[in-house]
Every structure is written in C-alpha cells, then in structure tokens.
Design brief:
OB fold (Dihydrolipoamide Acetyltransferase, E2P), five-stranded antiparallel beta sheet, 35% strand, binds adenosine-5'-diphosphate, binds magnesium ion
C-alpha cells in the first residue's frame, strides 16, 4: 500500500450543544504523516472533534483544511478518510471480506481488484485466510482488526480512530497499541486517534493534545507532556502525582519542610504546588547528590505490586507522598518497615513547580 499523507489544519472550531461548549475555539495543526492523539476525560470533546474532522458534525464556527482544501462544507463521503469507531460498526450479516471490501465496492472498483486489495488489507492486520468467516464467528480482537482493515483498504490519506481498543481486554489492548503504531509507521497516513487512557496515548503518539471542557490544555510530545506539564490539569491527568503546596518566602520556595531546588522555570502565579511523581522519588540510603532535594519522612504504608512496590511516607507538615521502586532480588524484604524514618530524594531536574 502506498498512502500519501495530508496535513490537517483546524482553526477556531466551536461547537455548542445548548449551553455546553463541546468545543471552544479549538485550533490545531496535525502534521502530514503524524500520529496525533486527542486525550481527555469523558465529555471533554474528543469525539465531537473527531466527528467534525469526519464531517458528521458541522461546527458552529471555524475552518478545517485537509492539505490546501477547505473541507468544512464537504459531506463525509467526499473527505476520503478512513474511520474506526469504538463499536467497530461492522455489517454483521456480511463476511469479513464483504466488510473489508465494502468501501471499494462503494467506489465502484472492479471485483478482481477488490479481492486483491482485501487480501492485502487482511494480511496487514494479520487476518490472512479469514475472508470467508462471518463477523459473529470472530473474537473481539479479530473484529477490531476487520474494522481497521476496512478503514485502510481504500488507502485514505487520513485515518481517524475513536477509542478503537476500549472493548478489548488489557493484554490484547497493550499488544494492539504497539501493532497499530507499527502499521501507522508502515502506511504513513496522518492519524488522529482518540483515547481517555493516558498510558495508551503515551505509548502510541507522536504528539498528544490534552482536552478538557472542549479546550486544548496542552499540545506536546509524550515526554514533554509527562516531564513538563504546563498546568495542573495536565500534571494531574497524566501519570500519578502527589502535589505539595509550596510556600514562598522571598525568592525561595518551601515544601515538605525543606527549601526546594529546581532546574525548571517557576510559573508566575500566586499559588504553587510541587509535582511529585512516585517513580522519580528515591529512597536515599547513603549520601545524595548536591542537586537533589532531600525530604525526611516516616513510612506510612507499603504496597507490593509484583514488578514494583509503592511506599507511602508522611512528610513534615503531614502530607503523604508515594514512592515507586522496582523490585529485584530480595529488595522488597529489605525495604524500611512501617513507622521507620526515611530520606526521600527528588532531583532538581525532576522538581516541577505547577501553578494551582
Ligand atoms: P468525549 O468524546 O471526550 O467523551 P464528547 O465529544 O462526546 O466527549 O462530548 C463533549 C460534550 O458535548 C459533552 O458535554 C457531551 O455531553 C456533549 N455532547 C456531545 N454530543 C452531543 C449531542 N449530540 N447532543 C448534546 N450534547 C452533546
Ligand atoms: Mg467519546
């Protein structure tokens, strides 16, 4: 398959339902060939934005271009995009091949060519030889692959996916995340992917747009979002964190009983918190580096999780933070016990101050 990708330009798109802004003045550029994810909680406007891209929802205002083409007034079938829905929307009375070939039939492609392209698409999603099966004879994972094959069989330049893995169990979902991303890299079409699962977004995306109440809270690469969230919403939504209130005294910042060192810029805001990611905090046994914040704390809980542990500790002032560490050998049995005094280290590079 050879799909030429197209950039997407979204400008000032607004969609209201009654008094609710499903989308509030959204502007976003998706690069040609990029895998971009819309991530946000339920009701944040992800599906609405995808439906605007697909042409099923007409926004109240704004413009939308695929390459140089303004498409906001074009109906879905003239937008030439592939789409995978959450519930797959397959035709249950048709075979696998019938489903996958359907978009080609609509486009009046000759039967022989349809057969060849269906076979090729089924190979791509690892369903070779299953063309004559009925849809109700397939597992959830196989149905998902059929929907995917149908969405790429006509070589669209843009692929839209709305929570396509949410019906699968965790193991298959994890595997399909990697597979989908590989398929994208082989085919190269511009992809807009919707999920509410932050780990899925981090795993799959070139960039992530975090949505809340119909607005983009931050647009960045997975690593940038995780390490440098621009606001409390993103910091809280991505990864696990404890937030400690920061006290300002002159130019110094205090939290958890110590004066903080940070390598990152401090937001200009009245109320600040320091973000503490469990896996970035370490238990300090010997001497710590000069550029490490060291908190003294008391162990309040210890949780075993197989490959890792979570140790909870109470800081001066009473706040509780979580520390995650990997378990190797006999490390777990040697961890400090409940009530023990510990030193927690957080490097200045991992010390991120967030505006409340
Ligand atoms: P998400 O996909 O992120 O869960 P949606 O885009 O489905 O969010 O919804 C965004 C907001 O718009 C929600 O408040 C939702 O209730 C509202 N909404 C979406 N579609 C409709 C509709 N057809 N009629 C009324 N309200 C809607
Ligand atoms: Mg949705």
């Amino acid at each position: 398959m050879n799909t030429a990708a197209l950039p997407i330009t979204i400008r000032n798109v607004t969609k209201k339902y009654g008094q609710v802004f499903a989308l509030n003045d959204v502007s976003l550029d998706v690069k040609s060939g990029e895998f971009l994810t819309l991530l946000g909680p339920s009701g944040s406007g992800k599906t609405t934005l995808l439906m605007v891209l697909a042409g099923f929802t007409r926004p109240d205002a704004g413009s939308l271009r695929f390459g140089a083409d303004e498409v906001i007034r074009k109906p879905p079938h003239q937008r030439d995009l592939g789409m995978v829905f959450q519930n797959y929307a397959l035709f249950p009375h048709m075979t696998v091949a019938g489903n996958v070939g359907y978009p080609l039939k609509l486009r009046k492609i000759p039967k022989k060519e349809i057969d060849a392209r269906v076979e090729n698409a089924l190979d791509l999603v690892q369903l070779e030889g299953l063309g004559q099966r009925r849809i109700d004879q397939l597992s959830g994972g196989q149905k998902q692959r059929v929907a995917l094959a149908r969405s790429i069989v006509f070589e669209p330049r843009i692929l839209l996916m709305d929570e396509p893995l949410s019906a699968l169990d965790k193991k298959l979902r994890d595997q399909m995340q990697i597979e989908l991303r590989r398929l994208h890299d082989r085919l190269g079409m511009t992809t807009v992917y919707v999920t509410h699962d932050q780990r899925e977004a981090l795993t799959m995306s070139d960039r992530i747009a975090v949505l809340n109440h119909g607005e983009i809270m931050q647009l960045a690469t997975p690593q940038e979002l995780y390490d440098h969230p621009q606001n409390k919403f993103v910091a809280d939504f991505i990864g696990d964190s404890t937030f400690l209130a920061v006290e300002k005294s002159g130019r110094s910042l205090k939290a958890g009983g110590i004066t903080l060192k940070t390598d990152s810029p401090v937001p200009k805001a009245e109320n600040l918190s320091v973000m503490m990611r469990p896996e970035r905090i370490s238990l300090i046994e010997g001497k710590a580096g000069k550029n490490t914040n060291i908190f003294t704390a008391k162990v309040s809980n210890l949780v075993y999780q197989g490959e890792s542990f979570l140790l909870y500790a109470e800081l001066a002032g009473g706040a509780e933070v979580a520390v995650r560490g990997t378990i190797k050998g006999d490390r777990y049995t040697k961890l400090p016990k409940l009530g023990a005094k510990v030193k927690l280290g957080l490097d200045a590079a991992d010390t991120i101050i967030i505006a409340d």
